[in-house]
Design a protein that fits this description.
Blueprint: H1 3-26, E1 32-38, E2 47-53, H2 71-84, E3 87-93, H3 95-101, H4 103-125, E4 138-142, E5 153-156, H5 164-187, H6 193-196, H7 202-211, H8 219-225
Parallel strand pairs: 1-4, 4-5
Antiparallel strand pairs: 1-2, 2-3
Helix pairs in contact: 2-5, 3-4
């Protein structure tokens, strides 16, 4: 594919992924947050979420579901999204919180943290209007519903591949968590965290067999996945 054809394809993809937010803007909503998570499946480390509010004229090409992108491309887009977004919030729950309340509830808790941080940054970064400080007034999730959320919301199946703000959030969350796991690999070098990011690969299980668990392992996940030698993917 020629460069011009690739760029044109990316422009069409960008326009397609903007449509859900455009419809909400036309309905009167101004600040729409896309929210996504990374790290529900690993055996170790936190679950990390991101909430992203993009401007209507956001024009960065190539934003998509983080799983479809190379590590290099995610890193590039991470910087561009940070430059262009109106506000970004990060939320996470530790392995201990995951063990305590289960991964779904920990994910929702982390998402609420991300939304609250994003909302606070939005109020500080954007000029106040007639009704007061800027606030998130609609939230788009990737297939998750949060029961006690203040803002109106919508859960979209495969939203990270359909909605621009959710895709941007997936990239922010993925790069943030991957960087954390690379740092953890320096502290706990036996599990290949720098490569598997805490997921249950053969090298990870080999490290568990030889060295046991480390302080960031999710013990409830290991009870389900390690005792029978099964490699968990997620």
């Amino acid at each position: 594919m020629k460069k011009e054809e690739r760029i044109q394809k990316q422009k069409l993809r960008l326009a397609e992924m903007k449509l859900p937010e455009q419809k909400l803007h036309e309905a009167g909503y101004q600040y729409i947050a896309g929210v996504d998570e990374v790290g529900r499946g690993p055996l170790a480390g936190p679950v990390v979420t991101a909430a992203v509010v993009l401007p209507e004229d956001f024009d960065v090409l190539g934003v998509d579901d983080s799983k479809k992108l190379s590590e290099k491309r995610r890193e590039e887009l991470f910087d561009r999204i940070n430059e262009k977004a109106l506000a970004i919030g990060i939320g996470m729950c530790t392995h201990e919180e995951i063990d305590e309340v289960n991964i779904l509830q920990a994910t929702k808790k982390a998402m609420k943290k991300a939304i609250a941080q994003c909302d606070s940054k939005l109020a500080n970064l954007q000029p106040a209007g007639p009704e007061g400080p800027a606030q998130i007034d609609y939230v788009l999730f990737d297939a998750v519903t949060i029961e006690d959320l203040e803002q109106p919301q919508e859960a979209i199946i495969k939203g990270d591949a359909k909605v621009l703000a959710i895709a941007a959030a997936s990239i922010i969350a993925k790069v943030t968590r991957d960087r954390m796991m690379v740092e953890y690999a320096k502290e706990y070098p036996w599990y290949a965290f720098e490569k598997n990011k805490g997921y249950g690969t053969a090298a990870h299980y080999e490290g568990l067999r030889e060295h046991g668990t480390c302080p960031i392992h999710r013990l409830t996940f290991l009870q389900k996945g390690f005792e029978d030698g099964r490699i968990t993917k997620g």
